Amino acid sequence: MTDARPPGTDEAAFIEAARSGDPARFALITERHRRELRVHCYRMLANYEDAQDMTQETFLRAWNKRESFKGHATLRTWLYRIATNACLDFLEKRNDRTPVLSDLPVSELPYLQPYPDHMLPEDPQESVVSRETIELAFIVAVQHLPPRQRAVFILRDVLGWPASKAADSLELTVASVTSALQRARVTMREQLPDRRLDWRSPATHELSNDERGLVKSYIDAHERNDLDALTSLLRDDLRFAMLPDPGTVMTTAEDAVDGWVSGGLFQRGHDDWRCIATTVNLMPAAVLYLRTADDPEYRLFAIAVLHIVDGKIAELTGFDTADKPWLDLPPTL
């Protein structure tokens, strides 16, 4: 695999580190790519914990294959190739990760996890393209693609690799890559009909003032147990999912709140909330902590990820975080 370029400083330093057999020097050079490789694995797998594991597997494979790196490709390209194939090997072994059917909603992906924003790449150029390619809707849509199509789509349309470079990385012909990309684009258009499909052009990644204000109102309604205020924040065609429970619900605002109350929330013993505003997947979110009558502390209960349209919550994807050390969040408040 070549990038038709002479080795740069990074590549020369890596070759020297590889020849020295010094794992500390190796780690110093490769570690700077960890964050972007983890995002790449997350797009492939839709699961933050698996993405962490496959990123570590990438570095292990890179260490074991270090002598094969000759500097004909950039170090970044070489690591992406290893990461992509590590994810493909992972998917091949997991029967529970077969592509989802086109009519299955977000909650039929029980392995879906949110991605903490503070772990995203710090390079602004990486962040520019990240929001629309890391939002939950995009991540779920990618899961509809067979693994190799998924890899082709991400390498070509998200990372912007030329067909020859993607083909070399996946050990495919250029014709096979082109065909796989065409099929993948059709599926993505079906899954994201109202979204921008030119993933390589710049997109905003900052939350709007309206989004920040709505999260604040959502938190305030929770902490005051103000069900009328909470209802007013939801669209009447709300899509609600609580993972890992199956079944996305399309519901009215009133029915959604009534369902939460009938399930025990906002009732005595489950009405003492403290919440933190955050962002995951570059989307507005609220971390919910609940204190019960027999517990002196507020304990991590759920993460509510919000997709806001025209000043109201159009999609609410909840993640059950009870008794789980999620996203480096404090377990208690």
Describe this structure in words.
This protein has 333 residues and is α+β, with helices and mostly antiparallel strands. The chain is globular and about 65 Å long. It starts with 8 loop residues before the first helix and ends in a 13-residue tail after the last strand. The mean pLDDT is 87.
What is the helix/strand order?
Answer: HHHHHHHHHHHHHEEHEEEE
Which descriptor suits the 3D outline?
globular
CATH class of the domain at 209-320: Alpha Beta
> Which spans of ≥5 residues are poorly predicted at pLDDT below 50?
none
Count of helix runs: 14
Q: Order of strands side by side in the largest beta sheet?
A: 2-1-6-5-4-3
Mean pLDDT reading: 87
Distance between the termini: 51 Å
Strands, count = 6
State the share of residues found in helices, binned by percent: 40-55%
Helix/strand-derived category reads: alpha+beta
The main pleated sheet reads as: 6 strands, mixed
CATH fold call of the domain at 209-320? Nuclear Transport Factor 2, Chain: A
CATH architecture classification name of the domain at 209-320: Roll
Name the descriptors.
Nuclear Transport Factor 2, Chain: A, Rna Polymerase Sigma Factor, Chain: A, alpha+beta, 46% helix, 14 helices, 333 residues, six-stranded mixed beta sheet, single chain
